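Blinded run. Sample ID left blank on purpose so nobody reads anything into the name before looking at the predicted structure. Input follows.
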Amino acid sequence: MSNARNEAGSGQRTRRAAMKFLHLSMFAGASLVALSTGACTPDRELLMTYSPIPDRESPRPATTGSVPHQQIDVEPVPEVNEELFRRAFALPGVENRPSTFSLPGARGLWINDSVPITRPDQIVSGREFAHIHPDGSLHASLPLDRAREAIDAGWAEAQPIAESLGVPGLVMLYTPQTFDELKTVLQLIVDSYNFVTGNSMNITDLEP
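Blinded prediction complete.
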């Protein structure tokens, strides 16, 4: 058991080091190739338990397309952003912490020890399964089919180094601009939480 924990910790440290190295490479002018949505392999058993995602009507925002992976010139709607944070951190056992693998200001969704994690291999760092940027966009790990569905429906794009991190379903979800958009983003956060914990939470569990 201790060997398994040591191996998981070693893997996370390796991924974290790779992230820092690639951040530096970005500033040095190195370019990175984005993960193709076609590279996602089906995970149909998990997908069957999920509700369909509607097509996003807002245009996709401009993004860096590389590391650091960010949106460009997107301002959050204050009341929508406040509700995003309030409800995302209402998930059982999830703590609001500074992100351990994003840029300054990002808040990590950290699963505390009261909730078992069944897919530690799909978490980049520690017990942080997702993080929210100050502009309301966020990175989260999803099953591959669910990640592809979110991308195809216009809600997300693949994290450029997801494959090299060993977390191929890692995506950036765009900032919700309306409360209707927020519902879908929250559903995907819940999907990510369920994916790494093996739970079966629903978005209705986060209702006020």
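Unblinding after everyone has recorded impressions. Confidence is low (pLDDT under 50) at residues 16-48.
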